[in-house]
């Protein structure tokens, strides 16, 4: 399942929240000497609302990051729980950035049962069916895009 659209949405959401947050701080100057908060001794309701919205937005974003990293780490054969916690809990998105830098290439998924097969697997360890095309002549696994079998020279039919 492709999660890129969710990530893009989350990114836009975060930028909008950050902009709203900045505009609010500039507009209300909650800590300035002549701000409404200081004059009345209480933070304005709008400020509290934005604070709540910002907190909810950040929690939502952290949740999305955790879900994304969990799924992604599983597909790459890395400990999913560990990495989703690191990405979600290390502040300033440092955990997420570290994960994106060190993550392993994606493991091959079995086209029959959807379970993860090893990077160089020929048969699925879960259901036993071939995870990559086999030569119809000698049953050797074929490299991607091969027209002729490198083992026996048989011409491969293009996949229908
Ligand atoms: Zn399988
Ligand atoms: Zn062959």
Summarize the structure.
This protein starts with a helix and ends in a 58-residue tail after the last helix. The model has no long low-confidence stretch (mean pLDDT 81).
Order of helices and strands: HHHHH
Quickly count the helices: 5
How would the global form be characterised?
rod-shaped
Structural Rg: 25 Å
**Number of strand segments:** 0
The stretches of 5 or more residues where confidence is low (pLDDT under 50) are none
Question: Keywords for this structure?
Answer:
160 residues, mainly alpha, 5 helices
Please provide a written account of the structure.
It is a single chain. With 160 residues, the chain is an all-alpha fold. Helices cover 50% and strands 0% of the residues. It has helices spanning 4-28, 36-40, 45-75, 80-89, 94-102. Helix 3 (45-75) runs antiparallel to helix 4 (80-89). The radius of gyration is 25 Å and the shape is rod-shaped. The model has no long low-confidence stretch (mean pLDDT 81). Bound molecules: zinc ion (2 copies).
């Amino acid at each position: 399942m492709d999660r890129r659209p969710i990530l893009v949405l989350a990114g836009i959401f975060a930028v909008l929240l950050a902009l709203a947050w900045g505009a609010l701080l500039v507009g209300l100057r909650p800590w300035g000497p002549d701000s409404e908060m200081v004059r009345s001794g209480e933070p304005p309701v709008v400020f509290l609302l934005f604070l709540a919205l910002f907190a909810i937005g950040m929690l939502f974003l952290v949740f999305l990051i955790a879900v994304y990293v969990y799924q992604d780490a599983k597909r790459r054969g890395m400990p999913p729980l560990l990495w989703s916690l690191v990405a979600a809990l290390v502040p300033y998105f440092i955990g997420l950035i570290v994960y994106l830098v060190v993550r392993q290439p994606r493991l091959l998924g079995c086209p029959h049962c959807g379970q993860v097969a090893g990077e160089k697997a020929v048969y699925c360890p879960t259901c036993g069916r071939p995870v990559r095309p086999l030569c119809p002549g000698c049953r050797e696994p074929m490299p991607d895009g091969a027209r002729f079998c490198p083992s026996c020279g048989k011409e491969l039919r293009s996949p229908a």
